[in-house]
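Dear Dr. H.,

I hope your travels went smoothly. While you were away I took the liberty of generating a structure for the chain from your last submission, since the lab meeting agenda had it listed for discussion. I wanted you to have the full record in hand beforehand rather than looking at slides cold. The sequence, exactly as received, is reproduced here:
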Amino acid sequence: MSGIFVVQGGEPDALEALAPKLAAQMAEGGEPVNHFAVVDDVLLGCVGPDCLKQGIFPRWLEAYGLWVLLEGELHGCDFLDTFRPQHPALTTDAEVFASLYRDGTLAEVIAGMNGAYFVCLYEPTTKTLTLANDRHGMYPVYWAEGNGRFCASSRVLGAVLAGCVPGELDLGGMAQLLSIDDFVGETTLVRGVECFPQATMLTRSGARTDFRRYWWYDRIERKESVNEAEHAERLGELMIRGTKRQCGKGRSIGITLSGGLDSRCCAGAANRAGIAFDSYTFGKKGCADRVFAADVAKLYGSHHHDWDYDYERFASGYEANIRVTEGLTNYTDCHMMNHRHKLKGAADIILNGYGGDQALGGSFLRGGWMHGLDADALATTLYEWRNQHVPDAKLGDFLAGWDQVPEEEKPAARYRALMRGLGGSSSADMTLRFYLTNRTRRMIAIGTTMMRLVTESASPIFDYDLHEAIFETPAELIHEHRIHKRMMRASFPETLTVRWERTLIPAGAPEWQMIGMKAVLKACRILKSKTGWAPLIGMQAPFDLPGWFRGPLREWLHGVMHDPHDLIDPVLRQEAYLPYYNKLLTGADTTRQLGLIVALKGFSRALEQAKRGEAAFPLVPERVTGS
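The corresponding predicted structure, in token form, is as follows:
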């Protein structure tokens, strides 16, 4: 689904008038599911292409006396594989949730209910609202409470349209984006609106709202040692089983392929599971992603779709792209938004490798972080590593009123606070927990949100059994893709014969060749910085954003940088960010920094519209009623 919305509080007529505005925030038009219900003082709504064939939501289940709203689905696991045969009358996931709720056992068993979902249950007789998501928060929802209303919506601006918050920009959120190109914790760009925490059940009855986290990584013990060969084989088996679970039966499957390891693992696992699939890649001509992805597709005989990057959509799709991403990602990362028209109708489910590089390949681990750092030292180290764009000391140059922001809301302090609460057996364990629960989760949330406008997204890495096995793996084996490649060698060794975007040589090459090639590529990057000449590494870049921003998209970018924005101009200082634009025009690559500014300025326009109470575009959702 593209998204859901839930509002509690207000008169029925006012709630009905709100439904088209909330639906338009997450729709493109023509979705088969575009429905809402008003029950007592509760508004429930859902919009989307229904690629999972779940049917219309919200839905009244007479047998249980419940309204149900469901994004996503449940997947096979020990609990459900036992529960379903015992309850053959339960034919849908919605009925499973409703039955467990009525039995009073949902809170006890939800930790073992494998899947990717966000579910809402409303009980009219007690006026109780219950919301819950899967362990990893694969369907992002944003919530707020205020002015006598509660709102949970797949879009941040839902809470503004619902009147829960006035729509003030959050300087702490803006600082996170500017300094680390990222968000940590549950922060958004709107003060008072937060991301719904992963592995959480919320119950709202009357004016009381209770959050309960039902699962955390402390339930998994990271092992000090394993039999590496046996563990790699087990991971491969679980990858194949997780892929099969997420694909289901009778659905068309696609895979977005790149030059990395994650997507080719999806292809190998699908092949071993007997699942036919199409594949898709986009990028500049001759880039490693397109060349190596085509080689992977050839391995498995998939119908491969290879597309030139549609750069023009950065400009023509600006408003729609921002409406979906809401400033929660660098605008230069809106790749899926720019190509969603090509994926529309292509497959019911598109498998992707989201999270694999971080969880299984240890891309955020460095040798010096593996042991010996306490929470504060590790937080400081990781923040300094990520603070690549606007230096922490210069945030005050960019943000008016920065000196008035409480210290605990500043990015470095947020890193420390979150790290202290994570737990972990070592600094490597804490690092993995930190990135999986922050950057990885939040970035995957946006990536899947973009994709779900037109299809359904699935990431096998987050199958519960596979993810637990990954998290049991000793950190030393996660480091530098060691267990990742060992798993591939055990389960789909043919994928290692294809070159890897990171090194430009086959992924299964001996380690000495890998080290030598990394040194060569590092020398090429130094050469580029000094002379502008980029042998080899030019192939690694999948896109040519600097060239397009200086060329065909220059007029659009100039307008974004210079046009007045009433809401954000008093906060974001133009004299601080315009030098990045000028550097781009004189040959420097400042596209990442400019992508942050473009995201912020675009979101401020969308926020202004929501503050005025205006719908993004005219849309008429259909009302459903209970019997």
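Two observations you may find useful: The chain has a mean pLDDT of 95. The chain is about 45% helix and 15% strand.

With kind regards,
E. W.
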